[in-house]
């Protein structure tokens, strides 16, 4: 079927389209109610179907001829280790881990927070939760205690799973002090904290709270898969919104499994049995969907890489992994390629490896900028495909549907809407815009399977954040346009969310933290353009009192505050102390103008500006 036929079928009759795709997975009880509307008026997929996501990812394959196929390759240059797990071995490890959780009283619907580095236990514990019908919430290892504490309070987990440390290139990051501090800060204390001791650091254990992972596993009995309904939650993944409180995106079992299965062939053009590598982190949505669930549900071999694109040990690391493990498709964030290109512009390191297995390169997380696209396409001579998606959807909204019909690539575009996503460009008033006109990107309801159906514990926030701006549409928070050929160009966020090295962060949250400093009267944080990381946060700060104050010292304190409250990953390292912030007469800070000034772009001083001298002062400081 051509892309257009497939896409039209998905838009004209979504229920029939997805009922057919749902037959590709092994339900315990196939759904008869494919698309319904719940008591909050939200569309739900496969409400009466019964399944288990861990069964689909592991047991199904063990029982259907893949027991001895490698399911997982753990490749860790930072510890000099590699480990391979067959589907049978992984199923057995997951069943034991599920038994360990069960022994702690974890049951269907209970939450488990996972704060682990990129080690097999991260993937094993996610699948173990899915096996029990419990809901996991993975917290990215780069987050500081307050971020973990907020998630503990929101998800109210029964158990927290962690390890003694993570490893950042050659730096050992001790996790246990972070976890202990977070538990101390949180109102909700998990009943049990299970700690994996890694050889690089030994965590100190607290009697009553902590349990040694190895010991607990040794005592565990394997647990079987528990049937859940299509609409039961599989996981909560917190993501940055415009305020300090992260949003708990809820992913449901049924729609997610169907979308994962479909995407592996339609978007990534991967067959069961092939090796697929998403070089991301299990703490982000890309890691959830394409390190763990997508490849395993599809019967592939997935790679879990504990390292960086550069420095572990060099910019040839990705190419080594690809050639050593026979990777067919690589998926990562453009920032990783920019880092490699900077270190090895001629790709000399890549030439040391046989990369004949590599058939496609996928990029997402931020726009694939044309210079990086061209470097990749010319160097590797394989299709290089940008695709656009968000934590909220769990899979691509726009892509080059490589497995259906490869479309010519237009540099700077993520190609066309994925079947199921009725993407429209709207103006401020909600009217559809013609091609080539830039506006707000919205998706006409119903959203396809796998997209969020609520924010954990707060359906009203879900509605007000996403569904109320344009009734009948989901607002994505991104701006962009379609060209006359129907190619979609994403031009960036229209809210206070920024993208730093593929990590989604909230400038609103940083403003809240900076604003807490006793010397700060007011502040603004914007995302400035950065050649390597895409964007970097930058603060503008007005002090309460400047007498006897050293601005540089205050800036250093602010940098330390953001690092302490969000984590190193926020990369907040730059702030300017200014006399006043540029504002409109109604008091709105002119963040867009500030951004354009810092980036050296053209800008028009808004006629509503209260005090044009504020901009002049900043221009001089820059
Ligand atoms: N645990 C603890 N700290 C972490 C961390 C983790 N899991 N991940 C990152 N950090 C720290 C880093 O050590 C760094 O600390 P520093 O300020 O003390 O040096 C800081 O957070 C910023 O990290 P990062 O954004 O990774 O920048 P970097 O300069 O260390 O590396 C890249 C640059 C491009 C190599 C790196 O950002 C990268 O690999 N990006 C790919 C991102 C990605 O896969 N995104 C997923 C979406 S698909
Ligand atoms: P996250 O929820 O962390 O996946 O971040 C989602 C945001 O990243 C989107 O709203 C976009 O702003 C940005 N993004 C992701 N993929 C792309 C892409 N291919 N092109 C442009 N922006 C992207």
Q: Classify the helix fraction into a percent range.
A: 25-40%
- Output the CATH topology of one domain: Rossmann fold
Mean pLDDT: 97
> What is the strand content?
15-25%
Number of strands: 32
- State the distance separating the first and last CA atoms: 55 Å
Bound ions, cofactors and other small molecules, one mention each: coenzyme A, adenosine monophosphate
Helix-strand makeup class: alpha/beta
Number of helices: 18
Major beta-sheet overview: 7 strands, mixed
Q: What would CATH call the class of one domain?
A: Alpha Beta
Shape: globular
* Unreliable residue stretches: none
Which radius of gyration do the C-alpha atoms yield?
24 Å
Q: From the coordinates shown, what is the CATH architecture of one domain?
A: 3-Layer(aba) Sandwich
Strand order of the largest sheet: 5-4-17-16-18-19-20
């Amino acid at each position: 079927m051509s892309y257009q036929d497939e896409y039209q079928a998905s838009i004209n009759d979504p229920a029939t389209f997805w009922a057919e795709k749902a037959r590709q997975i092994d339900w315990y009880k196939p759904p008869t109610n494919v698309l319904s509307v719940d008591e909050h008026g939200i569309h739900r997929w496969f409400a009466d179907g019964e399944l288990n996501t861990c069964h689909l990812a592991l047991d199904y394959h063990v029982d259907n001829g893949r027991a001895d196929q490698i399911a997982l390759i753990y490749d860790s240059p930072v510890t000099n280790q590699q480990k391979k797990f067959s589907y049978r071995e992984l199923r057995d490890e997951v069943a034991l881990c599920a038994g360990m959780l069960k022994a702690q009283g974890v049951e269907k619907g209970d939450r488990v927070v996972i704060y682990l580095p990129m080690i097999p236990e991260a993937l094993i514990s996610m699948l173990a939760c899915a096996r029990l019908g419990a809901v996991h919430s993975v917290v990215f290892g780069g987050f500081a205690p307050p971020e973990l504490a907020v998630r503990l309070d929101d998800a109210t987990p029964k158990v927290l799973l962690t390890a003694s440390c993570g490893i950042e290139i050659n730096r050992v990051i001790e996790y246990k002090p972070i976890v202990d501090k977070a538990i101390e800060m949180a109102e909700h204390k998990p009943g049990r904290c299970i700690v994996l001791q890694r050889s690089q650091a030994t965590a100190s254990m607290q009697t009553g709270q902590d349990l040694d992972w190895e010991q607990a596993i040794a005592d565990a009995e394997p647990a079987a898969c528990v049937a859940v309904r299509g609409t039961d939650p599989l996981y909560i993944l917190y993501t940055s919104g415009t305020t300090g409180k992260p949003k708990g995106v809820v992913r449901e079992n049924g729609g997610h499994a169907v979308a994962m299965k479909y995407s592996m062939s339609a978007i990534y053009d991967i067959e069961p049995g092939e090796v697929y590598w998403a070089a991301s982190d299990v703490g982000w949505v890309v890691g959830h969907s394409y390190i763990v669930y997508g490849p395993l549900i599809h019967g592939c071999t997935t790679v879990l890489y504990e390292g960086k694109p550069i420095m572990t040990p060099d910019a040839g690391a990705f190419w080594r992994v690809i050639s050593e493990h026979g990777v067919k498709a690589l998926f990562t964030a453009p920032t990783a390629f920019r880092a490699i290109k900077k270190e090895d512009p001629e790709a000399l390191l890549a030439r040391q490896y046989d990369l004949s297995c590599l058939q496609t390169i996928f990029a997402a997380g931020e726009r694939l900028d044309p210079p990086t696209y061209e470097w990749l396409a010319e160097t590797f001579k394989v299709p290089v495909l940008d695709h656009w998606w968000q934590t909220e959807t769990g899979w691509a909204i726009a892509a080059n549907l490589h497995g259906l019909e490869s479309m010519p690539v237009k540099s700077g575009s993520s190609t066309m809407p994925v079947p199921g996503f009725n993407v429209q460009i709207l103006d401020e008033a909600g009217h559809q815009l013609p091609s080539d006109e830039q506006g707000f990107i919205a998706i006409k309801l119903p959203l396809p399977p796998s997209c969020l159906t609520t924010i954990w514990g707060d359906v009203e926030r879900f509605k007000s954040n996403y569904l109320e701006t344009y009734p009948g549409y989901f607002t994505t928070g991104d701006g962009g346009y379609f060209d006359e050929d129907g190619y979609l160009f994403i031009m960036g966020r229209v809210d206070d969310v920024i993208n730093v090295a593929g990590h989604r962060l909230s400038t609103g949250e940083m403003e809240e933290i900076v604003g807490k400093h006793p010397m700060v009267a007011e502040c603004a944080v914007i995302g400035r353009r950065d050649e390597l990381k895409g964007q970097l946060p930058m603060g503008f700060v007005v002090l309460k009192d400047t007498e006897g104050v050293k601005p540089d010292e205050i800036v250093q304190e602010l940098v330390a505050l953001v690092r302490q409250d969000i984590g190193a990953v926020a990369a907040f390292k730059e702030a300017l102390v200014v006399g006043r912030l540029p504002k409109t007469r109604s008091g709105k800070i002119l963040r867009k103008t500030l951004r354009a000034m810092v980036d050296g772009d053209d800008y028009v001083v808004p006629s509503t500006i209260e005090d044009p001298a504020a901009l002049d002062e900043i221009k001089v400081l820059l």
